[in-house]
Amino acid sequence: MKIEKVEGRVFTYPAKRSVDSAGHAHPGPEIQASMGMVTITADDGTQGHAFALPEIIRAHVLNAFARKVLIGQDPFDRERLWQELEHWQRGSQGQLTDRALGAFESALWDLAGRKLGLPVHKLIGSYREKVPAYGSTMCGDELEGGLKTPEDYGRFGEKLVKRGYKAIKLHTWMPPVSFAPDPRMDVKACAAVREAVGPDIALMLDGYHWYSRTDALYIGRELQKLDFAWFEEPMNEQSTASYAWLSEQLDIPVIGPESLAGKHFSRADWVTAKACDILRAGVPGVGGIGPCLKAAHLAESFGMDCEVHGNGAANLAVTAAIKNCRWYERGLLHPFLDYDVPPAYLNSLVDPMDEEGFVHLPTRPGLGEDINFEYIEAHTTSRY
Ligand code: LLH
Ligand code: MG
Fold first, then answer.
1. Model pTM?
2. Which of 55, 118, 163, 237 yields a CA-CA distance of 20 to 30 A from 253?
3. What is the CA radius of gyration of the chain?
């Protein structure tokens, strides 16, 4: 079997999300958002697909790297193809990103699953068929009835528990919100949610990502009193020493790194530097399902959990194929948005959650997305 074609396309779909000046997602007026899809086709007609932002899989990236490495190769040689793409990164002057690597590699997994008639988590070797989810809120805002006050977070926490969530992660206020960042406000929001949902719901905080060490230490000590399950990304993750300093002083598990570059290699450095108690890696961020599994297996070898960052089919497949991840990150959630309605380019959700807070793994072959190819075809704005 040989890869014959690597194609990209951009299409539009309606979305009620806007992004603020720091890149955080919030509810907004309905817009036509753009999404990219990479499709890898083998010589027997089998295809694999993966979604990524259009800029990540733009024409230059496909022409200069993906096609050169992938065309004519056996699509089942995922590890060799990933390593060859990864070698291209150094000389690509930053053009071939980890996220692009993740999209191409995910499409190869999708192709393999479709060819063999197996969901990707079964192909990897499944650990479970359903994963408990935590509701991951959007960052705080200044919208009336949104996530403007600690009381808003408390009310939203109650609503999420009614929906079935057994765990909730708060993203609190960050600039450009006028009063952010404010460690005391973050603690008030956490206290309001604990008060609203009671002692049996697991809670986590993912606050402003650029606090000082002393602000992070203050917040961490308050979270300990509120019996939070973990403390995520309160400081710039490029400072491993700061995270080692924080982890040393807190009892609450510090989790990371999420946004740090360096794939599974930087995760190994964090473990040996004692910079975290729980490791973190997400498929797009670390360059694919393979490197995400490597990070998780590394953590397991050190007796640590590795919590998978982010939602979506590929992240869900990894959570189902490892033992040392407690939760699937479902979101981002907001009182104004209904996460249970799939985007127009999918016929159904890839991560449906039951009343008990479990997300059930798709049984479809490949990554398991129920792709609405007709919709995508009708809304394609460019192909390359
Ligand atoms: O800062 C944000 O907008 C969020 O932290 C976002 O990046 C989210 O993906 C996250 O951190 N999840 O854990
Ligand atoms: Mg996070």
1. 0.98
2. 163
3. 20
